[in-house]
Amino acid sequence: MDQLKAIRYFIKVVETGSFTKAAKGFGVPPSSLSRRVADLEKSLGATLLKRSTRIVKLTEVGHIYYNDMQQILGQLAQSQETVRSYQTTPMGRLSISCMVGFGDKILMPLLDEFSVLYPEIILDVSLSDELSTLGRDDVDIAIRGGYAPNERVLAIKLMDNSFIPVASPGYLQKYGTPKSAMELLQHRGLYFKTPSGPTPWLCKIDEQWHDVSGPAVAISNNGSWLAKKACNGEGILMSTRWALKSYLETGELQELKFEHELAITQNTNMAVYLLYQKQRYLVPKVKAAVDFLVQRIKETGEDNKQTK
């Protein structure tokens, strides 16, 4: 028995819900396809499908086998693409997932450059602050802020992702400039909301962490809207240096500096990471994108350091 062919027949039956439709898709007689699937079940010692005159349904163990085989066939197709694409022109659909703020301000302008260099690559870009699992979500490259991930993927650190406090000159004139981190408890706060909740204002004093978050006047996962409210003098904002760069350069916002630096987490090793699966780097379109983005985003990170 050609087990791989039998598995493909089985999956097609599940997807179409019919032996006849599945057989038509492969251009083989329904009896031949049905016999192959029956041989597969016999070799496994399990009934994968419930058959009736009208419908075909998966059994409980059939569900498990179907999900497993889908993953295996996906990996096989991926390996075949790697072999076929090796040392060829970068082309095809490239799926990229990136956090929203970073995507708007840094990634999307770079991808315009990338498209000029590699016109045969079709970019499929999703901006979301929800975490993506590369294998499960069919993502070639992900860009995420936070800590080095535990996933079985390669993670390249692109730049620091530390947060800094800022306020507009108008706000400071009206409410006063806080002289210490503890004084922030008396100030109006604009808070960025992550999937795990609003980011707090934290500082470490004498080896003890303190939450110095002031009363909230606005909470959102839209960084541009929060920055606009900060420019309007509505509160103090904690955000990343790369996100605030243009506002700091124009003077619309100014960085607040204290003896004890602020953070949004007790883990001080926050960064922006580019993630991809090791075997996918052999695919020309992925290699081209990884190499280009790593170089250009690191250049952007160096520019941000110069604005400090």
TrEMBL record:
Keywords from the UniProt entry: DNA-binding, Transcription, Transcription regulation
Ribonucleoprotein keyword on record: no
Family from the record: Belongs to the LysR transcriptional regulatory family.
Name used for this protein in its record: LysR family transcriptional regulator
Domain of life of the source: Bacteria
Organism expressing this protein natively: Pseudoalteromonas issachenkonii
Lineage: Bacteria, Pseudomonadati, Pseudomonadota, Gammaproteobacteria, Alteromonadales
Every HTH lysR-type domain range: 1-59
Pfam families with a match to the protein in the record: HTH_1, LysR_substrate
